[in-house]
Design brief:
Layout (H helix, E strand, L loop, with lengths): L2 H4 L12 H12 L1 H4 L3 H9 L4 H22 L8 H9 L1 H36 L8 H16 L3 H31 L22 H15 L15 H31 L3 H8 L4 H9 L2 H37 L15 H20 L4 H32 L12 H16 L11 H16 L4 H12 L6 H10 L1
Helix pairs in contact: 2-9, 2-11, 2-14, 4-5, 4-10, 4-12, 5-10, 5-11, 5-16, 5-17, 6-7, 6-16, 7-8, 7-14, 7-15, 7-16, 7-18, 8-14, 8-15, 9-11, 9-13, 9-14, 10-16, 10-17, 11-12, 13-14, 14-15, 15-16, 16-17, 16-18
């Protein structure tokens, strides 16, 4: 085998990434700094001072879902992520639908993150004392153009930018969190806030259904942890490094979220006035930094949140491009979308993804929605689609790990993916039934998208092509080293 062959996957993508790159891609796609700039307030609007439980619930559920991703990624490496894992475990049509949902999720979550950039750019001008307030759609479109330009670069350039963007922002957010906890704990906090364990208390009458409804913010916070799987054909040793990347991303991001949500809840205060202010805030970083440290940190954190959101924008659209590339390549569809640039980037697929994201953004603007509403609408739609993909991936993991003879997974571990199905399924139910408009429309929008994908999947020859391509590129049987690692980890 030549040196060039060892650096290129069968699909034409270049194998040049290590475990740190894959983990950086997942962390950047999650965008924890940008996430905690807004989603904590969303959880507080439902759970009040107990907003921390939304993230605890989601962390547990996502960790259970990640079990299936970690196990399967030791056997299957493919740029299509859940498309390939579901396709090889539940069949070509199910795999296509899973990839179709993941693609939609990345596009809409990316669009929502782009819209949120407009929100924070407006906030930044306001914090700097400027009367200039650009319309969010123009800010978002400029960001989209930059995303396309960056997304056409080599993948290792993208992963490095995502990592550095998050590390810098996370450092300043952690400084704020620590300052808040110290001042609250030493009774020197502004407004007389003091430390209390009440951040673990739920409002009277709160049940598991309410927590599950709030957990959509938690799931959205972790959306993208599976992003490393889309680098399955661009990682040097994917069956070893991708599972490690999942674990690193979830551990680091989970710890960051729990620290941040506790600090934000205590920083605003757990009385009725503090909870009301927190749940109604569109700029928690700015408000808390100004109160606890100074306006200079508020400005830095607003800028850091903007950069983090840009990283999410880059990561989600890059991930969507790779899923689209895999779907079209393996289904025998549009050959142009299945081509890569000389540097290995799926640039044609990225162009289509960018146009779809632009369509979502323009539709949101035409509704006349405020920037905050437009952000949450797109993010919620994407999260529902993502949860559907998680369900299919988890069912596929159960079948492959426990009902075939291709692994040595202990039977008792089946309880882990079953619990994941219960938690994810219940969260889907609570975010699809009994909601007020426009949120009541979103599950139907996702259902329509799934039906379109289902109709496409009946195109003559599509499932046969997918089956052939998946089996040729990635027969789900690990090599000896991977099998030994799998056995040793069980």
């Amino acid at each position: 085998m030549t040196t060039e062959q060892t650096k290129t996957s069968p699909g034409g993508l270049k194998r040049e990434l290590k475990v740190a790159d894959a983990a950086a891609f997942s962390v950047g796609l999650i965008g924890p700094v940008g996430v905690m700039a807004l989603l904590g307030a969303g959880a507080a609007s439902i759970l009040g001072g107990g907003a921390t439980w939304a993230f605890i619930f989601a962390l547990v559920a996502v960790a259970l879902v990640a079990y299936g991703f970690v196990k399967l990624s030791r056997h299957i490496s493919h740029t299509g992520s859940v498309y390939a894992t579901v396709g090889l475990t539940l069949g070509a049509r199910s795999g296509f639908i899973a990839g179709w949902c993941l693609f939609f999720a990345y596009v809409t979550i990316g669009a929502g993150s782009g819209i949120e950039i407009g929100l924070f750019v407006q906030q930044l001008f306001k914090d700097l004392g400027s009367s200039f307030e650009p319309d969010w759609i123009w800010v978002t479109i400029i960001a989209l153009v930059l995303v396309v330009l960056l997304g056409r670069r080599e993948v290792h350039v993208i992963t490095r930018i995502l990592l550095y963007a998050e590390l810098i922002g996370a450092l300043f957010v952690t400084i704020l969190d620590v300052v808040i906890l110290i001042r609250v704990g030493s009774n020197t906090a502004p407004g007389g806030q003091t430390f209390s364990w009440k951040f673990l208390e739920l409002p009277a009458g709160t049940d598991i259904g309410v927590i599950a409804a709030a957990a959509v913010f938690g799931f959205l916070a972790f959306a993208g942890f599976e992003g490393a799987a889309t680098l399955g054909e661009e990682t040097s040793n994917p069956k070893r490094d991708i599972p490690r990347a999942f674990k690193i991303a979830l551990t680091v991001v989970g710890a960051f979220y729990l620290l941040s949500i506790v600090a934000q809840s205590l920083g605003y205060g757990l009385d009725a006035a503090g909870v009301k202010k927190f749940s109604g805030s569109s700029a928690p970083y700015s408000e808390l930094a100004s109160s606890y440290v100074g306006n200079w940190l508020a400005d830095i954190l607003t800028l850091a949140a903007t950069i983090s959101l840009f990283a999410i924008f880059v990561g989600t659209l890059s991930g969507a491009a790779r899923v689209l590339f895999a779907l079209t390549r393996d289904s025998g569809g549009n050959n142009r979308l299945a081509r890569t640039a000389p540097n290995g980037a799926p640039t044609n697929a990225l162009s289509v993804v960018a146009l779809l994201a632009l369509l979502v953004i323009v539709i949101e603007r035409l509704t006349g929605a405020a920037v905050l509403d437009a952000t949450f609408w797109a993010l919620t739609i994407g999260t529902i689609a993502l949860l559907v993909a998680y369900v299919l991936a988890t069912v596929g993991a159960i079948r492959f790990l426990f009902f075939t003879k291709k692994t040595v997974t202990p039977k008792w571990q089946i309880v882990v993916p079953i619990l994941a199905l219960v938690l994810v399924g219940y969260t889907l139910y609570k975010n699809a039934v009994g909601l007020d408009a426009p949120y009541s429309y979103f599950p139907y929008m996702v259902a329509v998208w799934i039906l379109i994908g289902l109709a496409i999947s009946f195109r003559p020859g599509l499932t046969a092509n997918i089956t052939k391509q998946l089996e040729a590129m990635n027969t789900p049987v690990p090599d000896a080293a991977t099998e030994a690692e799998t056995v040793g980890s069980n």
